[in-house]
Amino acid sequence: LLPTTAIIGTSEFDTFIEHNKIGGWITEKSDSEIQNYFLKGRLSKELCKKLEILIKNINYPLAVRSSGLLEDSQSQPFAGIYETFMLPNNHKDYHKRLIYLKNAIKLVFASVFMENARNYIESINYKVEEEKMAVIIQELVGENYDGYFYPNFSGVGQSYDFYPTSYMENSDGVVAVAVGLGKAVVEGERNFRFCPKYPKMQIISEKELLGEGQRDFYALDLTIDDYELHNFEDPTLKKLKLRVAEKHGSLHQITSVWDVENNRLVDNPEARGPKIVTFNNILKYNSFPLAKITEEILEIGEKAMGVPVEIEFAVNLKKNLKQNKFPAFYVLQIRPLTINTEEIYIDSENLDKKELFLYTESGMGNGVIHNVCDVIFADPDKFDRTQTMQMRSEVAKLNEKMKHEQKRYILIAPGRWGSRDRFLGIPVKWHEINQAKIIVEAGLKDFIVDSSQGTHFFHNLVSMNVGYFTVPYATDTDFIDWEW
Description:
By secondary structure, the chain is of the alpha+beta class. The chain folds into three domains: 5-139, Dna Ligase, domain 1 (2-Layer Sandwich), CATH 3.30.1490.20; 143-225 and 234-336, ATP-grasp fold, B domain (D-amino Acid Aminotransferase, Chain A, domain 1); 348-480, no CATH class. Helices cover 25% and strands 23% of the residues. The strands form six sheets. It has a five-stranded antiparallel beta sheet with strand order 9-8-7-15-16. It has a five-stranded mixed beta sheet with strand order 18-22-21-20-19, covered by helices on one side. A four-stranded antiparallel beta sheet has the order 1-4-2-3. α12 (456-463) links the parallel β21 and β22 (467-471). α3 packs across α4 (94-110). The longest helix is centred in the first third of the chain and has 17 residues, at 94-110. It is globular, with a radius of gyration of 23 Å.
């Protein structure tokens, strides 16, 4: 299914820029100044009339999403660079709800000119002036659970798997899912991955799931009706512990139970014990045909676009015959996925490992990168996951230095780069590391690394043709020579 959707074309963006006299000078302002200026701007009278009709006739939560021409191009598509806003749309006064909707649209427009977007667009050899922004107003998929609105789970599917395991092929694809809104997946937080062609095959072990499985989820807070959208956070979203969803009864088909006495997972959600997000009842016992649906949609999308694709989706499992509600899969977005097809043969058997400072079986892409002489890395012996915000600041400063000197470099640290969860890695934004030509995520003894595949951050690495390696801890083949 597709959620109810309204689209504002790029002509409104052009009109807004022209009528509010926004020129090149805007890029010299700070992000907060840009947002404030756009909020003071006026949308066209024609659009305002249509938005008023829309808001009078709907009272369900809304997602206001970007759809830039460059963002959705087939040559270098990107994701997560522009803003998306989730609106409760539940204020008693429709005038107030209309103001929030207008502000969200203006802020999506504004995000084209903000620092992160400007740096990214320049790095792919375009100019900000070339971008044209459309806006998608979409019904938010989910259910109201005691004032919190969210789907049972959301996810990202890719028709090309950069890191297939065992007998799986690249073309088999990969899907990442998480309880609640999709923010946990696209921003690199804890999620669950599977291959849609072989859904019963576990990519990670049960014990790894116990330690690294999803613990929190995102929901839209329906208890608030007064908020500010321009504070660079998500004022309408709440990050909740998984036990809250358990109380809501929304985890029935999603979790298994850890049998402490027998040290194993039990696929009976009614059993007593710690709940672990495994999706076993869906993937192993097909209580909902998730694998089949994602496999078919990815196949259709790839045929239609002629290139590998990535989809974002959400699923409601609630069934209510009286209300004519049935479990449903909703496609939220689909975009091209860039694949580098260059082929370089590497004879790994005859490599002299003593001459290498890094080797991994989990590298993305295939090719040769020249003129890289610098390495920026976080010392694994001193790495403290509670200090990642300070590390982010240091990395950003070094990146600026490299940019000034027109140098590219290799970037290495434990955990995930670009994760929203600062305890999973250094939470950098793209413009803070955009001089890096190779990015490495390393595992430590007490810090298991799962690749960033499925995140907006990863999607942009692919589009930018940046080398990306994951180096697990203590394997027979993979290593980093930290003393090199």
